[in-house]
Every structure is written in structure tokens, then in C-alpha cells.
């Protein structure tokens, strides 16, 4: 789960990371008011969306008067901001953060991620921050410093100091860097984060370290024990198709094609996507109904997949281990009737009670297309799509 920049800054500040003073606004008037309240002579106005790359997309601006803050905020509210990291629809701006402008001497990069290879939290840092890590890895790979943290010991001072020296920091900045690194690590560990990124972490002309941007992402499987983090969820930033499915305990991933997929298990879902592509089709989405899918769950899955208007055929591919094919088949038949389906449905069942399952499908009297193998199912789904011309005319 992602959170907004201002929320990440609030959290990191609690752990000891230096951040600029700022205020949140839900309207242009409030943004102008925030600037007056903060005082000073220059402010940075920042669109709060769950995406980086806002600066390059026109979502961040330096303003010299509170009126300018008000005016720029007015252009942001309600806008769909499209960045390099969002899809073509972008993300809606409903909150704006106003903070005092820093005079930047240098921009550093600082990231904490989980390194699966070493099974440890890893720090990735560079003295040349500001741009995205992917660009940095291309343009200046040698500037990237990596360091893993022993979970039994935590991030020790000497390790943090070593990294500060590697980044070329001097004097008091070293101590500030040690504090910042240790604070980020503790926030990551204590709050079940999966990513903490400060980009840029700047050195000001007066020589101080300040986090000008912050991004945090959390392990959704741990949210049950992080209620304060769970409350920060902002549904306006999520794909509504995915969040609605999540509410019903279904994992849904939205894609761009027209073949809706109901599958159990992420591995089988990946294999099915591959087979659809191989057969010349494009998946519209895939929905993982998980183990133990009752007929009611299958009906729910159909409704969720059909909510995507691009879907012109549904492919059901179930390997029943814990599941039972006859339950899934009952669910498909029930869904067909309840939802009032008008598009073709291809069903491939394998595993527990497969014969009973197939019998239910075949004797249903419904125009369900039965397939035995994954390849057959994918080919049948592609073949049963309406022809593009007919589709447009319809
Ligand atoms: P994004 O990563 O989404 O583009 P950032 O918060 O990193 O957004 O802002 C983009 C750039 O704007 C930063 O790299 C920095 O140069 C500048 N910037 C951001 N906040 C401030 C600030 N408070 N004072 C001065 N410059 C800032
Ligand atoms: Mg940034």
C-alpha cells in the first residue's frame, strides 16, 4: 500500500528525519492560507498523488507569493496528473502540500528496499539524486552505493557513517546523515514498510540535510497490525476495479485487452496470460479467486470481471487442488444465469472432481465452451471473440 508524500514526511519526521515545514490544503484558498501561515518568501506547491515524477509533469512549482500559491494550486485541484510512472489516465489531485522552499546546494538519493537475494533490508544511495533511480542506474551507475543491514544488529552507527563518507559528506552533515539513515531504517522496520525513498535528500547552502521528497510503501499483509498506517489508505489513488475486488477478498489485476480471466493461483494466471498472448489474444484482466472458491465467490468473480467494459469473452481456468471442480462449475452456471451473460465463456477445469465438474458444464444447456488443456482454452477464447468489425457495429 502506498501513501502520500506528506504522510511519509510526517512519519519519517517522527522518527527523526529532517523535513521542511509545510501544510496540507484541500482547496486553492487553503493553499494560499497555508503559505501565509508558514511565512517566509518562497514556497513549493506539490500535487499529492501516489506517483513520483510529479516535478517533470508540472505537479510541483516554486512560488514567490501566497497569491501565486493560490493560483497554481487552482490549476492542480481536480486535475488528472499524468507522470512517467502513471498510466495514460494519470492520478487525480485532491490534496496539495505547501512547504517552505529550500535553497538546494546538492541533491542526494536515498532508498531502502528489501533485497530478496540477501533476505535483508538494503540501502541504495547516491550523491547524484533528484532523478529517478532507474535513470540514475543508467546515467551514473558508479554513483550508486549499496549496503545491507543485519536484522539482528540493526543499522549500526559505524555502518551509517561509512555510507555518509562514501557519499562525500563532511563535518556536521555526517552526523545528520547517520541520524537520517537510522531513522529511516527504524521506520521501515517498525512499520512493516517495503520501501522508503527520499529523493531528493538535499544539502542546503547552509550545509544542512533536508528530505524534500519522501515515498513509503507498506506490506499489505501486515496492515492488520499497523492500524495507523492502514488508515492512511487513499482510494482515490487506486484502480477502482482492483480495490473493489480486494474488498471481496479477490485479487484482481487490470490490463488493456478484451479477454477477461478467472483463474486460481498467481502461477496459473501467469501461464494463462502467456498462452493467450501465444494464441494471438490480449487479456483484459485476471482475477485470482484463490482456493476454496464457493459458487457465490465464482458469481462475484464474474461480476468483477464484467465490470470492465472492454471484456468480450471470459476464460475460466481452474486447477482444483483445495478447490473442487464441481463447485466451480456450479458457480459458473449460477453466474451465467444470475448475471445474464451475453458474451462467450470458455471453461477449462482440471484436478479434484473434474469429471463431475465437466458434467455440470456439459449438461447445463448453456452455450459454455469446454476445453481440456490450457492451450485449447486460450485458442478457444481468442477464436470466440467477436470480429472487430462486428464488435464496433454492435
Ligand atoms: P517528484 O519526485 O514527484 O518529481 P519531488 O518532491 O522530488 O517530486 O520534487 C521535484 C523537484 O522539486 C525536486 O527534485 C526538487 O528539486 C524540487 N523541490 C521539491 N521540494 C522542494 C522544496 N521544498 N524546496 C525547493 N525545491 C524543492
Ligand atoms: Mg522526488
What's the structural blueprint in terms of helices and strands?
Blueprint: H1 5-15, E1 22-25, H2 28-38, E2 43-47, E3 60-63, H3 66-76, E4 80-81, E5 91-92, E6 96-100, E7 104-115, E8 120-126, H4 133-139, E9 145-149, H5 157-166, H6 172-190, E10 193-204, E11 209-211, E12 215-218, H7 227-230, H8 240-247, E13 251-254, E14 259-263, H9 266-278, E15 283-288, H10 295-306, E16 313-320, H11 325-339, E17 345-351, H12 354-362, E18 368-371, H13 374-383, H14 388-393
Parallel strand pairs: 14-15, 14-16, 16-17, 17-18
Antiparallel strand pairs: 1-6, 2-3, 2-6, 4-5, 7-8, 7-10, 8-9, 10-11, 10-12, 13-15
Helix pairs in contact: 1-6, 2-3, 5-6, 9-13, 10-11, 11-12
Structural account:
It contains 14 helices and 18 strands. 37% of the residues lie in helices and 25% in strands. It has three domains: 21-100, Dna Ligase, domain 1 (2-Layer Sandwich); 104-229, D-amino Acid Aminotransferase, Chain A, domain 1 (2-Layer Sandwich); 240-383, Succinyl-CoA synthetase domains (Rossmann fold). Strands 7, 8, 9, 10, 11 and 12 form a six-stranded antiparallel beta sheet that branches. A six-stranded mixed beta sheet has the order 13-15-14-16-17-18, with helices on both faces. It starts with a helix and ends with a helix. The chain is elongated. With 394 residues, the chain is of the alpha+beta class. It has helices at 5-15, 28-38, 66-76, 133-139, 157-166, 172-190, 227-230, 240-247, 266-278, 295-306, 325-339, 354-362, 374-383, 388-393; strands spanning 22-25, 43-47, 60-63, 80-81, 91-92, 96-100, 104-115, 120-126, 145-149, 193-204, 209-211, 215-218, 251-254, 259-263, 283-288, 313-320, 345-351, 368-371. It comes from Cypionkella aquatica. It holds the Pfam family Ligase_CoA.
